[in-house]
Structure formats: C-alpha cells, structure tokens
Amino acid sequence: MKGKQIITSWLAAKELKPFQFQEEAWEAYQQGKSGLVNAPTGFGKTFSLFLAVVIAWIDKHPEQYRKKYKNGLQLLWISPLRALAKDIARAMTEVLEELQIPWQVGIRSGDTSISTRASQKKQMPEIMIITPESLHILLAQRDYPAHFKHLTTIVADEWHELIGTKRGVMVELALSRLKGITAEENRPPLKIWGISATIGNLEEAMQVLMGTHYQDAVIIRAQLKKNIALKSVIPAEMDKYPWAGHLGLKMLPQAIPVIMASQTTLLFTNTRSQSEIWYQSLLTACPELAGAIALHHGSIDAELRIWVEEALHNGILKVVVCTASLDLGVDFRPVDTVIQVGSPKGVARFLQRAGRSGHQPNAISNIYFLPTHALELVEAAALKAAMEEELIESRMPVLLAWDVLLQYLMTLAVSDGFHANDIWEEVRNTYCYQHMTPEDWQWILAFLTTGGDALFSYDEFKKMDRSGNFFRCTSRMLAMRHRLHIGTIVSDVMMKVKFMSGGYVGVIEEGFISRLQPGDSFTLAGRNLEFVMTKDMTAFVRKSTSKRTIVPSWQGGRIPLSSNLGWMLRRKFNEALSRRTKDPELLALQPLFNLQEDLSHIPKDDELLIEHIQTEDGYHLFVYPFEGRLVHEVMAALLAWRISRITPITFSIAMNDYGFELLSDQPIPLTAENSKALFTTDNLTTELQASVNSTEMARRKFRDIAVIAGLIFQGYPGKNKANRHLQASSSLLFNVFRDYDPHNLLLQQAFNEAFFYQMEEARLRETLDRIAVSKIVVTHPEKLTPFCFPIKVDSLRDTMTSEKLADRIKKLIAANG
DNA sequence: GACCTGCTGCGGGATG
C-alpha cells in the first residue's frame, strides 16, 4: 500500500490524521467496492473519496504516477451545484499539485465556455466535476461513449440533496447508461459512490444510487458527531409577544447583540420578501453595518450573489440575510454564527443550516432560534430533542417518473440512437423504474415515435424514427431544441429587473409588476427602485428616493412542517404544564399555556384537540393535528365534505402548520361522539376525490411534467415565453390527453404527483390512523385561544389588505376581551 | 397586547 503511505505522510506533514471513516472508505474502494459515505459536515467527506481514488492510482502506477500521460477520464464527480463544483475543483487541484500528480481537473456545467468544452471533447481531463444536467448533455452528443472509455469511478456528491428529486432520477439514468457502456466494452464494473449527510433512510438512499444490481455495496458511517449549540432567543417581554405573525421583527433588538458579538453571521429567513424586510430593518437599526451587510436569495442577480458568496468566504461581511439559497454549497469558513428566524419546518434543514457555522472538525456550530410568534417557541424545544435523538427526516425517492424517462430516451436518440432491448434492461434496473412493465415501455416508445393516441396527427410529436428495435432522432432542429431543454427544473416565468442605465438587479413575478404604476417604488436586492416601464419581459427601473416602498412577494413553494418535527412538537406539549420541564422555551410559555388550559385544553400526544368557538363572524371549528399545512388543507376539505353529508352546510377553510379552521354561519354538528366517524379512513380514496378538486391539482402538476417530457417548447435561452403561454399549452395538452388518451402515462403521473406531493396522501392516512386511536377532546372556549389565534389571523388575510387586516385584528382583540 | 408570507436547483454545438 504505497499510496496510503504517501497520503498519510503528506497529511502528517500538515499535522493532520485521517479520520477512521476516511481510512475505511480508502480500504473499501481499494477492494473495488461501491457504497455510500455518511458523515457530518466539515469532516472531509469529499476528501475521503477523492483521496481513495488517488491512493488507488498511486498503487497502480507506483513508479510513474507523477508522469504526465493522457490518461483520459478516470473519475466523474457529480455535484448538484455549479458553485460547489468550482470549489471542489479548486481544492482537488491544490492537493494534486502538492502531491505532484499531473492530473487535470475539469468542470463541466452551464458556465463552462465553448472553448473549454471543445478541448474537453478532444482530451478529457482525468477528473471531471459535472452537474446532472451537463452529464445528460454529454450523453446527447455523438460518439459519447468515447468520453468514458477510461472511467473507473463515479461519485455522487451531496446525494441526500438529489435523492427525492427528478434530478436524482437523471443521475440514476445516467449511471445506468455508463454501467451499460462499461459492460459492453467488457471493462471491470464501475465503482459507484455516494456522499450523503444523515437522512432517515440512508439504506434506501444507497439502493437508489446503486440500482438493483449492486448487492454488496457498503455504507461507511463516520462515528463523529457535530457539536451543535442551539440557543433559543426568548422574547424579552414574553407576555407581550404576538400570538400570530411570521416576520419576527419584534425580535430585531435581540438579534443585533448576537450579530455584533460574532465574527460573521448568516441570518436565515423563510421567504424572499422576509429577507428583504430584515435586511432593510437591520440596516435602519444599525447604520454602521453599511458595507458589512448583504442580502442573498434566489431572485437576486447571480453576479451579485457570487460577489456575496466570495465576500463571505473572505470574511469581509459581518452579516448576510438569506433564504434557503445558502443552505448548502460552498464552505464559508468565517461564519461562526447562524440565526434562524421562524420555523425551519424540519430537523434536517435546521441541522444543515446550523452546519453552515463552525465548518471545521470539532468546531461548535452556533445556531440561534428566533421565534416569530409565541407558540413557535415550542418548536425550539422540539428541535433540540429531535437533534438529540437524531430524528432526521427521510427523503422519499421518486418512482416511475415518465417525464424524465421520455426526456432521457430523447437524449439517447439525438446522440447515437439506441437499441430498445438494451436500454429496457438498463432502465429497468434503476430504482426509479424497477416496476416498469413491458406495456409501459411500449407505450413510451410509441409515444415518442407516433405521438400516441392523442397527438398522432401532429408531426412535431413524432420525435424519433424507428427501424426494427433501433430508435433515433434524425431532425437536427428537434435535436437542438432537445439539448436546450435538458433538465428537470421548471422555473416559473419571471420578469427581469434592469436599470434604465443598464445593470441587472434580479427577477420578479410578472403579476407583481403588473400591479405597479410607473413611478411606484419597490424593493429588490435591498435597493429602493422606481418602476419606469416594461418591455420584452423586462421591468426597467431607476434608483428611488422614496421612503415608502413595497416589498415584492414571490409565489414560491410552501414547505409544510415535517412529520418528524410535528411529532416532536406534539410530544413537547405533554410537558407544557409540567413544572419539572427544564426547557427554557416551555418555561417561558407557562402564562400562555395556562391561558390555553383555562380557556380550552393543551393536547397530549395521544389526544386530538377540537375547539368550537362562536364569534360575531359565525361558528368556528378548530382542529390541531400538527401535521403541516398540506395535510391540513386536504383534511379540512374532507371534514367539510363529510359534515355536509350530515347537514346541508357550507364552510370557509383556513389552515397553518399546526391546525385548521372550518367557519360557518350555522352551528357545526361535530361532537366527541361522531368525530371518530368523521375522521375515518373508510372510503378515503373516493371521498377525497369528491371533496378535493384533484383534477385541478393534477392539471397544475401536469405543467412541469409536460415541459420535462419535452411536449412544450419554452423558447430559446433568454427569450422565455410568457407564463400565460405555458399555462395555456399545458392545459390544452392536459385536456386532449384526458379526452382522447386516458391511459396516457403522463396524465397518470400528474394525478399521482398531486396525490403524493400536493395532498401528501400517505401522510394524511397516517394522521387519520393516529386520530383513530387518539382520545378526542372537544372544548367550547368562550373566546379565541392562543392556539387558534394564528389560524384566525391567517384566514382574515386572504380577503383583506394589510391595513384593513391590522384594524380587523384590533377589533378581534377587543372583542376577545 | 397581538401585522405584512411562502425555498432551492440547471441549461446546444456544428460550421464558417
């Protein structure tokens, strides 16, 4: 083992010693195994595998490993982020230089220049770091197998980020093809490795990566624990802290000392508009932060974001206000403190964010939790317990994603073409498509060659030619369009925001701009801007001096509270009234809990609380399953439907992550006696269909599916079509399939996705099953309770502007006494 | 005494 000696002595010269898990990874790799490496952030997961490859290389060529050859591509490193790819390439290059190994490290991603691509094509670097999309683009090139002739190893970095997404499916498919090429050329099997943070289903994560073939893959777990110090910031005047709200600006004075005492702080918010508001407020409160504070979220111009990331790296910034855009990626060493404003919604996400600080072995990650309303403080106690018990969420792998398969087959068709029998074998051995039937496969092939039962008369849907079992796309126009559209991320159509004088600020939703009059001011990227005009999907602006500006809102995703966190939250309520609890969060909430108990009840984890409250608005029913807003939305609709079968009655519905409300102008006939029947899982599927508009939900899901499957052309880069266009064509296709091709697999997929992701059907069932064995506690409080107040405020918001809302809340309080 | 909602990720290439 010459390689290992060389590496360990090189490390020793730096006063470093490999961790045990790293040595285990080297060993396993040396034996030709595949597997998954799991370790907390900051312990060198990346290097465990990179050095394993280097060691094996030295052992293979002990005398001439420092000689320059044209070795060809040895190691393919899949990174989900372009920024991460750059960082890793830089680090690898440094190591190789120190070891005097003349290997090239290349990056292949969307920002790789045309000339670099061309030279890569002539001579591949020994190591290539690539995004899943770019990997498929390689597969879409003529003679693509030649690139991979010398490939021995593939590493999927940050695999926990990809599993559970269609980008992960792209990786599965690419691996199946690369394995196929290796087998065709009678080379030794590829070594396939994943690198993953801890998730609930690590075993499954590995199976997904390996496919159904590799039986003897290993999981290497680092027996290391990241030291995380979670500190809840308890509102100074707890008895005056709002019961509802999500911005948390009241806590600003308590956030400032934390920021000032730290070297560099990342302040995470849940939404882009919230980050804009916090940025402005911090700057107003501490003008001395000017130049040392920055803002980072997904709608800010990429160049500006890169500047912020670099400034963070170099320690120039004191604080960065951000959203999930800084969840992962580049290692920001100067960051020593993280502040989470509002609920992180999940344990894994919270850990991930905590790990952004103290990013070195044995350093402590400091994370402060800042509640935005009183009850949210319980989440801090729940998070603490969940971290101790390592109760980390699972990521469910995507199954039978037909849209991605259609795209992939087209990729193969535009490069060298494919033999259906070979590819069928390969695809069926991926985790995603293991249950694909021969009929499904035939349908897919027919759809790509003829357009299927619905689209057979339109030539643009006949994408491939068939001769026997060989499929190929001969149209150069289709091939080019296809290469442009590789990928599974379907973004909403956004409008660019540019200065009149040139200079790009960021993006904003069409709908937001359409509500502005020229001369109106709004805030983006922390700047006050005056709207001038729109032209070609671009909003032109100039600097504004106005003090009153509107903060835009973006219609982003709505992440529900995870079931792990919900479960822990329910458990924490058991301790709410116990004097023995040591959680400072629960102790601080004692007055609130006492009030809730006086007015109503605090549910234990084996109870379901239901509150009947009558106000001047009507009759309210509040239910608290703590299962996240998506489940609550569906449950509310289901319950409303079932109650309306007892008595003719109509409701309006509201919900948040903790519970939901049904509001009616007549008494709601739900009692402790009939409640079990109203929450039963009997006839669930049919009654869901009746109560929820699943067709509409499926129609919304279908838009992305149609784009990914290549049925809708989104236009050439930089010239995106307007949103209306996309909606219209996808809706049209949806109708055509429904009417003329009801067995269409893409249509079925749309319904499946609606049930799985939008209604969280599995989780709904589990919730109902839990309720079936729970004790149901029905109370009749005389006024609004601390539990119901946030939901009530939320339901008012739908129908009112914010000023009216403030008045309304005052009235509510007054009426509540 | 109680306010403002809603994340992220990627991206042709052949020819003159």
From TrEMBL:
The lineage of its organism: Bacteria, Pseudomonadati, Bacteroidota, Chitinophagia, Chitinophagales. The keyword Metal-binding does not apply. Belongs to the Lhr helicase family. Lhr-Core subfamily. InterPro entries: ATP-dep_Helicase, DEAD/DEAH_box_helicase_dom, DEXH_lig_assoc, Helicase_ATP-bd, Helicase_C-like, Lhr-like, Lhr-like_DEAD/DEAH_assoc, Lhr_WH_dom. It comes from the Bacteria. One of its GO terms (molecular function) is DNA binding. GO terms for biological process: DNA repair. Residues 26-217 form the Helicase ATP-binding domain. Pfam families: DEAD, DEAD_assoc, Helicase_C, WHD_Lhr. It comes from Chitinophaga dinghuensis. Keywords: ATP-binding, DNA damage, DNA repair, DNA-binding, Helicase, Hydrolase, Isomerase, Nucleotide-binding. This is ATP-dependent Lhr-like helicase. Residues 251-413 form the Helicase C-terminal domain. The keyword Isomerase applies.
